[in-house]
């Protein structure tokens, strides 16, 4: 009698060996998103600049550990590689979406808004899905755990962020404006969402939330100052041409003499310079006044021309007798003139300081920060910081020399502010409050919450 095939031991052995492999391959097929989706996710991660905070030199990509100094203490970014023990390998798409758009971790606890989920809340489901595919399948798992974040009481109580979110997290999805062009809407979506310009450029209230009524009107990051980028022609960038803004965002240099330093330069190097040019054009169309946006971007004006023009405006004054000059001018001649030229008009492609837009800001923090930290562009010559060479008084003196002589500005900086910038910024008034004792800040949150709820109720009953 012939036995049925499935009773043949050889056949059984073969099936038993192959079955898991076949099943595994079928499962993997169902699980692995298309290459195209992963690549789209990578592009979203570049626009969102995830690397700025989640990658740290000397550690594997995206394994976290980047210290973010907040006025409340240091917050460490976490490992967002697909490692299942140290990273987010176990996150479902929904948990990932909640972390990005609602500020809730997989374990249900709240994230600190040092992670810009208030901006990412505007991202579409499609972008979140692509981003998830990239982090699950396009990033190498790394098992290094970052240091733990320890904030002082009451900020160590993550649930207090729930009240904060209730007050300040606008989780409505992005609404395109049907009256505007597709390009304008693309720009609005990117600025409000992934590229999170407001995280730096919008001033914050006493509870460190962005003041939505003053979107992009300029805010201090504690040290660097992110200037007004509204379309106001006086205080903002309303006077910039589209080409100037596009060049600035793609290269950190602009025909109007602006150069980027500090966190803006980092965002340009890691993110904006790597985004598709259409997206940067869309951002410029959204940010600039309508009339300017309608005009097509004129071809890049040679930046050197602009600098020479500025240079010609300043007469290269013959050096005065040495004891005649101010302390600020002396520092400038000793330390700066070799690169920026005695009259501030720039040399050999190095930037002009005369008429530089950094000198027409409401404070001189960025000038002092550039002198303290230096300027470090990825693909050009940079400038070493002078933190070790120059004392607070000398930095204040040379900063004020630049403000008055090259910027015709009345804004000045004092040595106390330079010392504060050197130390990493002013301590938060919130922290002072918290230190006073029984979580006064927690009480403030509760009181504000009450005010907000009653206002909302009133609005409803009206
Ligand atoms: C400005 C800095 C910053 C940027 C930019 C940023 N993150 Fe974060 N992210 C953080 C910090 C800080 C934390 C941890 C916050 C905490 O401990 O409460 C975090 C936490 C997370 C978490 C939660 C992980 C966990 O611990 O369970 C995820 C997921 C995440 N980020 C993904 C992203 C992605 C994706 C991007 C880019 C689209 C991004 N982040 C951009 C700072 C940032
Ligand atoms: C991480 C913080 C940060 C983010 C995010 C950021 N900026 Fe900035 N930005 C700054 C800082 C700081 C400066 C000042 C740089 C300097 O003085 O060199 C600046 C300068 C600028 C300037 C020059 C303004 C002037 O008057 O000189 C423009 C324009 C600008 N940013 C546009 C943007 C846009 C558009 C986005 C989003 C697509 C953005 N920034 C995102 C921090 C940021
Ligand atoms: C070795 C040459 C060199 C020296 C010396 C030097 N700088 Fe610079 N500086 C640069 C370069 C290069 C940049 C801009 C890099 C870029 O964006 O391409 C720059 C940029 C700047 C900026 C613009 C920062 C911003 O916000 O964008 C300021 C302000 C400045 N320098 C001031 C000074 C002062 C003040 C001194 C003297 C204390 C000084 N520099 C000395 C090379 C130099």
UniProtKB/TrEMBL annotation:
Location in the cell: Cell membrane
Coiled-coil segments: none
Primary localisation category: membrane
The organism's place on the tree of life at top rank: Bacteria
Listed InterPro entries: Cyt_c-like_dom (IPR009056), Cyt_c-like_dom_sf (IPR036909), Cytochrome_c-type_DH (IPR051459), Membr-bd_ADH_cyt_c (IPR014353)
Residues in the signal sequence: 1-28
Domain Cytochrome c, chain residue ranges per copy: 36-139, 182-291, 323-406
A Pfam short name: Cytochrom_C
Segments passing through the bilayer: 430-453
Keywords: Cell membrane, Heme, Iron, Membrane, Metal-binding, Repeat, Signal, Transmembrane, Transmembrane helix
Protein name: Cytochrome c
Organism, scientific name: Vreelandella malpeensis
Organism placement in taxonomy: Bacteria, Pseudomonadati, Pseudomonadota, Gammaproteobacteria, Oceanospirillales
């Amino acid at each position: 009698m012939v036995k049925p095939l499935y009773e043949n031991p050889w056949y059984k052995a073969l099936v038993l060996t192959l079955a898991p492999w076949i099943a595994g391959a079928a499962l993997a097929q169902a699980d692995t998103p298309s290459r195209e989706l992963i690549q789209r996710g990578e592009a979203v991660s570049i626009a969102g600049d995830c690397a700025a905070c989640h990658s740290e030199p000397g550690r594997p990509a995206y394994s976290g550990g980047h210290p973010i100094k907040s006025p409340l203490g240091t917050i460490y970014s976490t490992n967002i590689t697909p490692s299942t023990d140290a990273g987010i390998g176990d996150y479902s798409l929904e948990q990932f979406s909640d972390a990005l758009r609602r500020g809730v971790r997989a374990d249900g606890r709240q994230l600190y808004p040092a992670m810009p989920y208030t901006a990412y809340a505007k991202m579409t489901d499609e972008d979140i899905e692509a981003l998830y595919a990239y982090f699950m399948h396009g990033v190498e798992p790394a098992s290094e755990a970052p240091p733990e974040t320890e904030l002082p009481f009451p900020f160590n109580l993550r649930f207090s962020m729930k009240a904060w979110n209730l007050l300040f997290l606008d989780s409505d999805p992005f609404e395109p404006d049907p009256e505007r062009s597709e390009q304008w809407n693309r720009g609005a979506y990117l600025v409000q969402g992934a590229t999170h310009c407001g995280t730096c450029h919008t001033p914050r209230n006493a509870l460190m939330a962005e003041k939505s009524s003053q979107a992009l009107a300029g805010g201090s990051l504690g040290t660097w100052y992110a200037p007004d980028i509204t379309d106001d022609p006086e205080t903002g960038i309303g006077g910039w041409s589209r080409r100037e803004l596009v060049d600035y965002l793609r290269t950190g240099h602009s025909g109007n003499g602006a150069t980027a330093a500090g966190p803006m330069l980092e965002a340009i190097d890691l993110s904006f310079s790597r985004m598709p040019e259409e997206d940067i054009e869309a951002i410029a169309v959204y940010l600039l006044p309508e009339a300017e946006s309608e005009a097509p971007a004129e071809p890049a004006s040679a930046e050197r021309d602009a600098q020479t023009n500025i240079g010609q405006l300043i007469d290269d004054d013959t050096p005065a007798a040495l004891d005649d000059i101010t302390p600020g001018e002396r520092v400038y001649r000793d330390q700066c003139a070799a690169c920026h030229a005695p009259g501030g008009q720039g040399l050999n492609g190095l930037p002009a300081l005369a008429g530089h837009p950094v000198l027409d800001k409401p404070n001189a923090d960025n000038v002092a920060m550039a002198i303290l930290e230096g300027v470090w562009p990825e693909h050009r010559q940079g400038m070493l910081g002078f933190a070790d060479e120059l004392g607070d008084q000398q930095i204040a003196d040379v900063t004020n020399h630049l403000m008055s002589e090259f910027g015709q500005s009345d804004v000045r900086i004092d040595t106390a502010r330079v010392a504060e910038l050197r130390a990493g910024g002013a301590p938060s008034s919130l922290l002072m409050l918290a230190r006073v004792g029984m979580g006064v800040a927690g009480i403030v949150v509760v009181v504000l919450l009450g005010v907000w709820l009653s206002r909302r109720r009133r609005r409803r009953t009206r």
